[in-house]
Specification:
Blueprint lengths: L11 H21 L8 H7 L1 H19 L3 H4 L7 H22 L11 H5 L15 H17 L2 H4 L1 H24 L1 H9 L23 H4 L1
């Protein structure tokens, strides 16, 4: 597979390769950089946005530099899922994108990279955050699962173990930071709102704000 990404013909297998590359080069660093954010949120607020953006960019660049020479490994072994796998992947990917579209009404995509950690903001419980505390992680895992199935590559499928494991480490840090920043307001929100799967009791949160609030007034 020395010429893996050369001479694309527009075939279905080419599309699988593109999906595999997209998954491998974006999702792991997109999870990893948070490990250096939430435990050090106060530092990043003092350091400023330029320093923070340099850190985030560096994580992506280092991941690319470390993993790209091994692309024949993580793109090299087909799973053999066939057309059914591609259809399932398309459904999951579409579901993740749909959640993302709804989520942007509350939290703009640009803020998924942590600008709110630097600029601050208010606690948010409206929109999707009225039903689950981490809708962005739900959307990300659906998108990742969809790309894995579409790629039909064994190496790329390993991300379904790697990325959730990273997020399992990130989320406790994130929730501790939110509890430290917002105190009883966040504790009350967390007690009534599940992490990932909505329940009927979480339907009405009134006028309260919620986690990862994008404060429109601050951006004006």
């Amino acid at each position: 597979m020395a010429t893996l990404l050369s001479g694309f013909s527009g075939s279905f297998d080419d599309l699988r390769v593109v999906c595999g590359v997209a998954a491998w080069l974006t999702f792991p660093p997109g999870c990893l950089f948070w490990l250096g954010v939430h435990p050090f949120a106060e530092f990043w607020r003092r350091a400023g946005l330029v320093c923070y953006a340099t850190y985030v960019t560096s994580v992506y660049v280092l991941w690319f530099a470390a993993s790209w020479p091994w692309r024949d490994v993580w793109l090299g072994t087909p799973l053999g899922l066939g057309f059914a796998g591609a259809v399932g992947g398309g459904v999951l990917l579409a579901g993740g994108v749909g959640i993302a579209v709804v989520r942007t009404r509350t939290l703009p995509t640009a803020w998924l990279f942590g600008a709110g950690q630097v600029r601050g903001g208010r606690l948010l419980t409206d929109g999707l955050y009225a039903h689950v505390r981490h809708p962005r992680y739900v959307e990300a895992m659906l998108q990742l699962a969809g790309l894995v199935l579409l790629s039909d590559r064994l190496g790329v499928a390993s991300l379904l173990l790697i990325c959730p494991a990273i997020l399992a480490a990130v989320i406790p840090f994130e929730e501790k930071e939110l509890a430290r920043r917002f105190g009883a307001e966040y504790e009350a929100y967390a007690s009534r709102t599940p992490r990932f799967w909505p329940r009927k009791a979480a339907a009405d949160t009134g006028d309260a704000d919620g986690p990862h609030r994008f404060d429109h007034d601050e951006d004006r």
